[in-house]
Amino acid sequence: QVQLVESGGGLVQAGGSLRLSCAASGRTFSTYSMAWFRQAPGKEREIVSAISWNGDSTYYADSVKGRFTISRDNAKNTVFLQMTSLEPEDTAIYYCAADSIFGFTSALLYKYWGQGTQVTVSS
């Protein structure tokens, strides 16, 4: 009962910034924990960041810690991923995901998914 649509991806030079958005529709968005995953060509989908239903708890993969910031605005039914100091290794399709429990780091455990948005970082 949650539909997710990502936006904000694009092409950026190394060292640049992008802000991804995930717009959600559904009756109980504010009760869901949210996460961002990414998948590069030839690699498995991996966790990037997660945030609890009220925003009090967050998780970041070591590879993005200090560079990415996750946030949510429940009044607008939107989750954000602010990405700074981007590196070519960040190039991937970024997916928004939702589930009822915070703390899952495996993509297999998330119930709802968006279609993804492409992020390409040039060197």
Question: What are the main properties of this structure?
Answer:
single chain, 123 residues, mainly beta, 4-stranded antiparallel beta sheet, 11 strands
Description:
- The chain is mainly β and 123 residues long.
- It is 0% helix and 50% strand.
- The chain has no helices and 11 strands.
- The chain has strands spanning 3-7, 10-13, 18-25, 33-39, 46-51, 58-60, 68-73, 78-83, 92-99, 112-113, 117-122.
- Strands 2, 4, 5, 6, 9, 10 and 11 form a 7-stranded mixed beta sheet that branches. Strands 1-3-8-7 form a 4-stranded antiparallel beta sheet, with no helix packed on it.
- The protein starts with a strand and ends with a strand.
- The model has no long low-confidence stretch (mean pLDDT 94).
